[in-house]
Specification:
The complex is a heterodimer of chains A (697) and B (553). Chain A is an alpha+beta fold and 697 residues long. Helices cover 31% and strands 27% of the residues of chain A. Chain B has 553 residues and is α+β, with helices and mostly antiparallel strands. Chain B is built from eleven helices and 19 strands. Classes of the chains: A alpha+beta (697), B alpha+beta (553). Chains A and B meet through helix 3, helix 13, strand 25 and helix 17 of A and helix 1, helix 2, helix 5, helix 6 and helix 7 of B.
Chain lengths: 697, 553
């Protein structure tokens, strides 16, 4: 194999399948593999997929870049398979973990309430004398003997990960750092998570929760990356350019993951890759605005992209636990192909949250599922081809769909089967649209002028009706909707996020102080890059402030992009930041108070280092022509509304050339998805092979 | 009514309530909104009935009372598109207490009244005797703040600045109140706009029809669930420490529940006389407690509470009782009365639904500190926190420790926020072992929280359960009683009443212990493994295990 042939590989592990995308750097060509996931040790599935490429002639040492999206930490949390965590907390405050937020989640009428199980039970919690005040001044020195004694007792009790969370450590981390030094003196291999490193932000419970999650999942990730590194080495994949997707849409090198301090950045690694692909691969649309709709078997993930970047949040909940690190702003609703339709006690048609999953699956799978699911409705209405599911590898039973719809829905409600099916679809599609609207409204975004980007198996089956509900007139269907997340792994930079709280009225913060805090965070970024063996050339820092009106409890992130030149942050920059905050508050909440004083709550720095990315090359010329005859597979009766049968043209996606145009009503079928094009929509294949659907407003 | 359209509109109202709620707490100014989240946002039908319950669902009946009284004061043709009404009146609008201010805006489409968008939120200060307005010892409604009967705040889209001036002119914290009102009216108007869009699209009659179908559906669900119960009668009573004024007189709550076919009657006539202190309830609050208990006991996951259930249950009251007070009886500390009443109702319900039986819970309390030395520069001088307690043990279930209980679901204010914004130090937040009532299923344990004051302060505390702890059931023991201890300059301790107003000076401090949950069932029957685990986790001491459970493992 000649040295100039080089490949980059993206591997996305999902619940049932592991998707792999291999990019030939020189030709820009992409090949796809799909293998079964191996949940007991996902590294096996990953390596199986890699071996498939090798078996088909890709030399492993020609893979120069390996990028990985994983649900390893998420699943370990859901299944409670994490480390045995010991916690050291400030003396006198062990109830902080017990009371949490004090609020209850779930059904407010159910007084038999339970909190999620403590990640470090009280029996594994030790209180350490030592206290700093809100400004970071030490009130009580750290009791180092107590630390040493507690470290031993926790290890004796079987701890294999230690979390340290002291009050106000975001304002002064010295006591936490000294605690770690002592623990490492005693136990040099101990896995230690400091709250002042994991999340140096004000509010003790979210910081403690995030630190505990890091401690609980750190050893799981470290072991997994160890297995994967070894497997790749053994398999001859020699590149050390190995990266892991993070919730924030950036990657980190494996060398950072094995340090364990950034484990909590991986909890939304899976869904982040799809949103990142959407931001990177949709060009001008990403600048104007995109709604991504990743609809699979049990749920639909929705994300927004604006100005070329996915929207982000800094507070999320994972398995009922607060997590305070930046993540792409995703919302998930229980609307998937497997979501079950049922009639509630009030006699109304409901869809989900129960899902038929893959086994027994919707009634049409013929595996004993008796409840009608969304996929059954799609089949009964003619949207899906029962003989061409996953490219024909699975045959679906249309009669079983109709029987389930009739018995469980149509008869009891006095409807026809098709009315029942259309009702199910309408409820699901409008729920997705409503979720998009509320999600957007909470962020001050009106999606009407956005483009909808569906992926996942069912996304394009429902995209057009979701778009119609939202008033969206443009839909962007990528060439391989089923492998879109894996492709996203080849579309991102190294990203490290740093934050530090320092709650002060803005007028009391000197520009020099702000500059100093930012520089400290940036120095930390450089130091970490060095530890990870990453060259700092081309590293960029982006600065932000978390700001709120005095008296408010929630802050908004204000970008300082373009502010603070060579000389550093100035008084004028501070005033500009203030103006940006007012504007953002008005945009999101509909009102601003320019005469009210504001507070700085936290300082943020984002470090970006570019890594090689997939760069699709468009066709040199796109001439619009009607879809060629050989792309037409035939026709099928489709009920776009329950009453009226429409003979609809079927197209084979792979046979639609660049520039091909087709008019709705039409159905486009491909191996990993089906695209529904209703009447009044027009489809065009663009220069990149994307299918763009459009209609007049 | 087409079942698909009904479901679609239900989902739309549900999303909308969520959206209103989000905008309000993210942009509210006072800690009571942003940290505790003491507010609700709702959509109502034209009769004021709740369509989808908000997180603080117990405001539901207060809204209906507001609307009913609105129609007493205004003819239909005096209510216009763009109007926003305000009231904080506990009697004329059913508001929980004077500090809770409701805003209500009609939704018109095709010239028809389709419903209302509305919100209720606690205000930092609305005048009255005490800083912060809330009181543990007021003897008249007039001590508790400025009273606004239902009146117009906006007229046909135009704000009436005079009303706002009156409100702000009566407040010790006009800035906080202005900011919160601004955010609250914005959230309320957002509800109007969104519902108008729905009505324009689906048709006003369709929306009204869907509302009726949703309300009737919930009523039917409840009827069926009641019909499945055995007919009969069950009574229970319980006492609150005192009313904050007459210290030696416990306050009695009593209920008799009668089930007959698909009808349920709740008779509160045997409750004690209207109290001198601010613990008086009105029918709107009692009805909310009744439905909370009914839904919780009959099946919280099967029944979908909304305002349609109101027609299924009959409530009876005697005049001038603590459950049906008359103005100007004071009401400020209503929530601890609500929570006491909930324990009593659930006790009576357990005869009908034994597998949902639960022992007494620890109630909820507030702490208000008005800083007299100027507070922290740039921050408010008003510190207000709501603290929960613990649930009682129940059938097959240990009580949850350290949480907001029953009707209350407010968040605790983080220590790091408190110390950064106010001149105080929270020097302890610890677990109190043996504080949960012993039982086969243990009551939840509670915490001790200690404060050091760095400036002079007026401290107002509204709590109880010092004399009457949360009761055990079926052989279970009571939970630990609450304590409120002042720490004097010389380090000595003085026990204070759970409810009261105290002047303290810099360098002094206090700690509070909440009330633990009651135990359920004979402690001797508790699984020894569970006792062992409780000892390891520090929820009970080895001595307590021996004393209360006869365990010496």
């Amino acid at each position: 194999m000649s040295a100039e042939v080089r490949f980059r590989l993206g591997v996305d592990v999902g619940g049932t399948h592991t998707d792999l995308v291999l990019l030939d750097v020189a030709s820009g060509e992409i090949s796809v593999e799909k293998v079964s996931s191996t949940p007991h040790n996902p590294a096996i599935g990953v390596l199986n997929g890699v071996n498939n490429f090798v078996a088909k002639g890709t030399p492993p040492d020609a893979i120069e870049f390996f990028s990985h999206g994983t649900t390893i930490t998420t699943n370990a949390l859901l299944e409670m398979r994490g480390a045995k965590v010991g916690l050291m907390i400030t003396d006198g405050y062990r109830a902080v973990q017990e009371i949490q937020s004090q609020g209850r989640d779930g059904n407010p009428f159910d007084y038999f309430y339970d909190k999620p199980v403590h990640l470090a039970p009280q029996s594994m919690t030790r209180e350490v004398p030592g206290r700093v005040d809100w400004e970071g001044a030490e009130i009580t020195p750290l009791d180092e003997d107590a630390v040493r004694e507690h470290a031993r007792s926790l290890m004796d009790a079987g701890a294999n990960s230690i979390a340290i969370c002291y009050l106000f450590s975001y304002a002064n981390s010295a006591q936490e750092e000294r605690t770690r030094e002592i623990i490492l003196e005693e136990f040099p291999d101990a896995h230690v998570s400091l709250s002042s490193e994991v999340l140096p932000r004000i509010r003790e419970w979210p910081r403690l929760s995030t630190t505990l999650l890091n401690a609980y999942l750190g050893p799981v990730l470290v072991d997994y990356i160890g297995d994967l590194n070894k497997g790749l080495d053994d398999g001859g994949v020699s590149t050390q350019q190995r990266f892991l997707m993070q919730s924030n849409g950036g990657v980190m090198p494996f060398s950072a993951a094995v340090q364990g301090g950034k484990t909590v950045y991986t909890l939304f690694s899976g869904p982040a890759a799809g949103a990142q692909a959407g931001a990177y691969l949709s060009g001008d649309d990403a600048m104007k605005g995109i709604v991504t709709l990743d609809m699979g078997g049990t749920s639909a993930d929705i994300a927004f992209i604006q100005g070329g970047e996915p929207l982000e949040v800094t507070e999320v909940t994972v398995a009922r636990r607060p997590l305070g690190v930046p993540a792409l702003d995703l919302t998930t609703i229980s609307a998937g192909g497997g979501s079950i339709a049922w009639i509630n006690r009030g006699g109304f048609l409901c869809v989900g949250p129960q899902s038929a999953g893959a086994d027994p699956g919707p009634a049409c799978y013929g595996k004993g599922g008796e409840d009608p699911a969304v996929t059954d409705a799609d089949i009964a209405l003619g949207y899906l081809n029962p003989g061409y599911f996953l490219g024909g590898s699975q045959t679906l039973d249309k009669e079983a769909s109709e029987k389930a719809l009739e018995e469980k829905i149509a008869k009891p409600l006095g409807m026809t089967i098709r009315e029942a099916a259309a009702g199910i679809r309408r409820i699901v599609d409008l729920r997705m649209a409503d979720e998009v609207k509320v999600f957007g409204a909470k962020r001050g975004v009106d999606p009407q002028d956005f483009c909808l980007l569906p992926f996942g198996g069912a996304g394009a089956v429902h995209a057009a009706s979701v778009a119609e509900e939202l008033g969206i007139t443009r839909i962007f269907v990528p060439p391989r909707p089923g492998a879109f997340s894996a492709l996203g792994l080849l579309c991102t930079d190294i990203v490290h996020d740093y934050v530090r709280s320092g709650l002060r009225p803005m007028e009391l913060v000197t520009p020099g102080h702000a500059e100093e805090v930012f520089r400290e965070l940036e120095a930390r970024g450089f130091a970490e890059l060095e530890e990870e063996g990453i060259s700092p050339d081309g590293a960029r820092f982006e600065r932000e402030l978390d700001v709120r009106y005095t008296g408010q409890g929630y802050e908004l992130r204000v970008s300082l992009g373009g502010l603070g030149g060579e000389a550093g942050f100035t008084a004028d920059d501070m005033a500009a930041a203030r103006d940006r905050f007012d504007d953002k508050h008005a945009q999101i909440h509909g009102h601003a108070a320019k005469d009210r004083s504001v507070e700085i709550v936290s300082y943020r720095v984002r470090l970006r280092v570019a890594v090689p990315k997939y760069e699709p090359v468009p066709a040199s010329e796109v001439t619009e022509t009607p879809a060629p005859e050989d792309s037409v597979k035939g026709t099928r009766t489709v009920y776009f509304d329950a009453a009226e049968a429409t003979e609809t043209t079927l197209y084979e996606r792979d046979k639609l050339p660049i520039g091909a145009r087709l008019d709705g009503p039409a159905i486009v079928e491909q191996f990993d998805s089906t695209i529904v094009v209703p009447e009044s929509w027009v489809g065009r294949i663009d220069g990149y092979g994307n299918l763009i659907l459009g209609r007049e407003r | 009514m087409d079942p698909v359209t009904v479901q679609i509109l239900r989902n739309k109202v549900s999303s909308l309530v969520d959206e209103m709620h989000y905008h309000f707490y993210r942009s509210g100014y006072s800690t009571i909104i942003r940290e505790s989240r003491d507010f609700s946002c709702v959509i109502l039908d034209p009769r004021g009935r709740l369509i989808i319950p908000p997180p603080m669902f117990f405001h539901g009946i207060a809204y209906r009372t507001f609307i009913e009284n609105l129609f007493k004061n205004y003819d239909m043709d005096e209510i216009e598109d763009g109007d926003v009404f305000v009231s904080n009146h506990p009697y004329e609008a059913g508001m929980p207490h004077v500090s809770d201010m409701g805003f209500v805006a009609p939704i018109f489409s095709e010239g028809k009244l389709v419903g209302f968008s509305a919100s209720i939120a606690h205000k930092a200060d609305i005048g009255g005797t005490n800083p912060g307005s809330t009181s543990a010892n007021s003897t008249e409604l007039y001590h508790e703040g400025l009273l606004l009967p239902p009146i117009k705040f906006h007229r046909a889209g135009e704000p009436d600045p005079d009303i706002l001036r009156v409100i702000l002119g009566n407040s010790r914290h006009p800035d906080l109140v202005r900011g919160d009102i601004h955010a609250q009216v914005a959230a309320t108007n957002m509800g109007v706009e969104r519902m108008k869009e729905n009505a324009d699209r689906f048709g006003a009659d369709t929306v009204i029809g869907a509302f009726n179908a949703i309300l009737d559906g919930a009523a039917d669900e409840l009827k069926k669930a009641i019909a499945a119960l055995p007919d009969g009668t069950s009574s229970a009573e319980g006492y609150m420490d005192d009313d904050g004024v007459d210290r030696d007189t416990p306050v009695k709550f009593a209920v008799t529940i009668t089930i007959e076919g698909d009808k349920a009657t709740f008779d509160y006539s045997d409750s004690g006389p209207q109290a001198r202190g601010p613990v008086n309830l009105r029918p709107a609050m009692v009805e909310a407690c009744t439905f909370y208990c009914l839904v919780g006991a009959l099946g919280p996951h099967e029944l979908h509470y909304n305002g349609g259930m109101g027609d299924v249950v009959e409530l009876k009251f005697a005049p001038n009782t603590v459950t049906n007070a008359s103005p100007p009886a004071p009401v400020s500390s209503y929530q601890k009365a609500n929570l006491r009443l909930v324990d009593v109702i659930l006790d009576a319900m357990s005869k009908f639904t034994p597998t949902r039986a639960i022992a007494g819970s620890g109630s909820s309390g507030s702490l208000l500190i008005s800083w007299q030395g100027g507070g922290r520069p740039g921050h408010s001088t008003m510190q207000y926190e709501i603290m929960g307690s613990a649930y009682g043990g129940g059938y097959g279930h240990d009580g949850c420790s350290m949480t907001a209980t029953h009707l209350s679901n407010l968040h605790i204010t983080p220590i790091e926020i408190l110390e950064s914004e106010y001149p105080c130090r929270v020097t302890e937040m610890s677990v109190i072992p043996d504080s949960g009532g012993a039982g086969e299923f243990r009551g939840g344990v509670i915490f001790r929280r200690r404060y050091e004051l760095l400036q002079d302060a007026i401290v107002v505390r509204r709590y109880e359960r010092a004399k009457f702890p949360a009761g055990g059931v079926d052989g279970g023991k009571n939970g630990q009683a609450s304590k409120f201890i002042k720490i004097n300059h010389n380090g000595s301790e003085t026990e204070l009443e759970a409810a009261g107003k105290y002047e303290m000076t810099a360098g002094e401090g206090f700690y509070m212990e909440k009330a633990g949950g009651g135990g359920f069932g004979d402690p001797a029957k508790r699984d020894p493994e569970a006792i062992k685990r409780d000892i390891a986790e520090g929820y009970i001491t080895p001595e307590g295990a021996k004393r209360d459970y006869g365990y010496d493992g």
